[in-house]
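Q: What would this complex look like in 3D?
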Amino acid sequence: MSLELFVIAAFGASLAGGVLGSLTGLGGGVIIVPVLVLLLGVDIRYAVGASLVAVIATSCGAAPGFLRSGLANLRLAIVLESATVVGAMAGALLAGRLDASTLSIVLGVVMIWSAWQARKEPVPLPTAQQGDTLAERLRLNSARGAEPAYGVRRVPHGLGIMMLAGVLSAIAGVGGGILKVLAMDRVMRVPFKASTSTSNLMIGVTAAASTGVYMHRGQVEPLIAGPVALGCVIGALIGARLIRRMDTRVLRVVFAVVVGLAGVQMIVRGWNTGGGTAQARSVEVAQ
Amino acid sequence: MSSAQRHDAAPTARRAASRLLGVGTAVSLVLLATGVLMILLLEHGTRVEYSVYTGADLDARSPASILSAVRTLHPRAVLALGVLVLILTPLARVLLCGAIFTRARDVTYALISLVVGAWLVLGLFGALA
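A: Here is my prediction, written as structure tokens for the whole assembly.
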């Protein structure tokens, strides 16, 4: 393939990935990996490295706007990041002992089910604006300037799910962003836009830790990761502007479609790569 | 009442994090755009093939080697530096927030930031590989 066509195609797919990734809080991997592998014929190991860089690029591009507007909740992001890190440490010890193919298929099914659930608003809890005692103590309730004001519920449950997200990211290399948004939206009852924006802030951190490992392995090829990162940063800047005007119901549908696609990818990948362990081919779809 | 409750460091941390992420992203954006333009101009008409995995060049595999290679001003080295700046930006955000919470004696958030920052440093500098 000619260099020009490759760079333009990678950039274009990443631009779309950056917009969708910043809107949904999932990063852009769900679009970028299939485009690189299926359309541009890139080996999956290079695509995985580029996908991780895409997640960081999307996070960094959109996060300043989300923080300024008060949509992203910094304290909540910091607390949940810590649980993900603990989970990732446990996952790193478990990786290689579990069958990642089976796990991928199970996760894929769970993702499709989650996508179906996520398309609707959760049933409101009584006293929705009040946070838990732990949320009060950790000052997790709505960031200043956030509209509407909200209380964070079920913090221990949320921390547990974040640990699971860390474990799964380390073993199967997938699901971090999806679980983060779902935990905040469905369990902790953080408003949807605040959930996706806070997830967007967090995914850059979790992806950065993994990217170091992939870079040392040689999976971050500058000529692939460079145009991908450029497209994602610009896409994320666009996404951060779009989200303010976007109807939450539309955003939910976009999220559900992206999560559903990621679920299908997980099932296909698990099916095609059966029999191995996670360390052989940990794959990042949506950190 | 704890000192953390007397002074809320979160708004300061949020503003500083926003600014830092903005600057890191802007620097990276300039480097990436420069690298892409240089590649398109200097390697115009060549073919690329990534269907067989051979791994990135050794000078794109660690922060030290990337910084060393960028002196050559090779387009791939400029791109690698842009990617590296991007990867380091979330780490810088975590460390900056940690410093702000430490200064405000918000022990819980200072400790959390320290643990997350340590994990990131280990990952980025290859200790987890």
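A: To summarize the key features: The longest helix of chain A spans residues 44-69. Chain A touches chain B through 64 residues (CB under 8 Å).
Q: Very helpful, thank you.
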